[in-house]
């Protein structure tokens, strides 16, 4: 089966250059998740069409790099997914460690209030913490969402902590 054209940019003597990558939905242990199509992200996040998509793509790229590094360093077997419930509540990213949800991450360009979806999705995942990455600088706020803690922080803080 041939690869989709949008994934492979060109081939140079057996070496392939890729333009985009896919994030698949998380399906295990999320009792009410739907089967959804994969989400497409660009390796060069600056080519995303609008500002909000560029920001989400930037966060996706940094999380992808971090989970590859953590896996390669022997910290565990990491994966990156997204989650969407039947009620259309979505978490942009879900870092999975050793087959279990580990850290849900939401990317918000301007909304610094915690996403209302956290209250519904965090109990399904069983994660004690979640991160909402926002674009405005100098944000660092902790909020409770049921038994879990949601950290709303600026991209400059959280992305600097990743590899």
* Mean pLDDT over the residues: 84
Number of structural domains: 1
Helix content: 10-25%
Principal-axes shape call: globular
Secondary structure category: alpha/beta
- Spatial sequence of strands, sheet with the most strands: 4-3-5-6-7-8-10-9
**Count of helical segments?**
3
Number of beta strands: 10
Note the gap between the termini: 35 Å
Low-confidence stretches: 1-8, 29-34
Q: Could you spell the SSE succession in H and E letters?
A: EEEEHEEEHEEEH
**Strand fraction:** 35-45%
- Rounded to an integer in angstroms, the radius of gyration calculated over CA atoms is 16 Å
Task: Furnish the topology, listing elements before pairings.
Layout lengths: L7 E5 L2 E4 L1 E6 L13 E4 L8 H22 L5 E7 L5 E8 L2 E9 L9 H8 L3 E6 L5 E6 L2 E7 H7 L2
Plain-language structure description:
This protein has one domain (8-161). The termini are far apart. It is globular. The chain has an eight-stranded mixed β-sheet with strand order 4-3-5-6-7-8-10-9. Strands 1-2 form a two-stranded antiparallel sheet. It has 163 residues and is an alpha/beta fold. It contains three helices and ten strands, in the order ββββαβββαβββα.
């Amino acid at each position: 089966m041939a690869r989709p054209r949008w994934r492979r940019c060109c081939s140079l003597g057996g070496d392939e250059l890729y333009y985009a990558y896919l994030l698949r939905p998380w399906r295990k242990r999320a009792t009410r998740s739907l089967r959804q199509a994969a989400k497409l992200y660009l390796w060069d996040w600056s080519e995303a069409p609008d500002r909000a998509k560029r920001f989400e793509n930037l966060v996706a790229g940094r999380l992808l790099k971090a989970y590859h590094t953590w896996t390669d360093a022997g910290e565990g077997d990491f994966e990156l997914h997204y989650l969407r419930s039947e009620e259309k509540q979505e978490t942009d990213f879900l870092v999975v460690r050793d087959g279990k949800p580990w850290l849900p991450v939401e990317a918000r360009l301007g909304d610094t209030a915690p996403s209302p979806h956290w209250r519904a999705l965090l109990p399904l995942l069983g994660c004690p913490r979640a991160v909402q990455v926002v674009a405005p600088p100098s944000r660092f706020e902790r909020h409770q969402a049921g038994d879990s803690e949601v950290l709303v922080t600026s991209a400059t803080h959280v992305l600097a902590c990743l590899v």
